[in-house]
Amino acid sequence: MATYTLRTDGGARGNPGPGGAGFVLEDETGAIVRGGGRYLGSVTNNIAEYEALIWGLRTALDHGVTDLRVCADSELVVRQINGQYRVKNEGLKPLFASAKALLARFASVRVVHVRREQNAAADALANEAMDSRSTCGDGVDPDHGGQPALF
In the 3-class helix/strand/coil scheme, how is the chain assigned residue by residue? Predict the structure, then answer.
């Protein structure tokens, strides 16, 4: 089976402050097959990073992906997901649990830390969502009954 790549990024302007989550899902050739950005309201950057991961994982599952490589530029999220750091923040615990439950649904999955510039497309979608205070892209939007988000 082909391994897809999920690139996720979240951010907040201020911490907490207006936040956004973005992701792109790439097929085995590197072509983007799905992507989205969503405005989150006032959140911390770590919450935004987890929201991006969860949305991207849901979209990958919806797309039928079974083998996945997740690339995130949040060292905290990657290390927590991989069991290197404990989740101490009470606000992150339910997001961590949701992400772990979704990750368990893939036949194979790897979560790796990448440099920010390797996540430029996901970062752009998160920023577009923050700028427009809306949802953009074609990812499955959990706030709209699982329907694809529209441009």
Answer: CCEEEEEEEEEECCCCEEEEEEEEEECCCCCEEEEEEEEEEEECHHHHHHHHHHHHHHHHHHCCCCEEEEEECCHHHHHHHCCCCCCCCCCCHHHHHHHHHHHCCCCEEEEEECCHHHHHHHHHHHHHHHHHCCEEECCECHHHCCCECCC
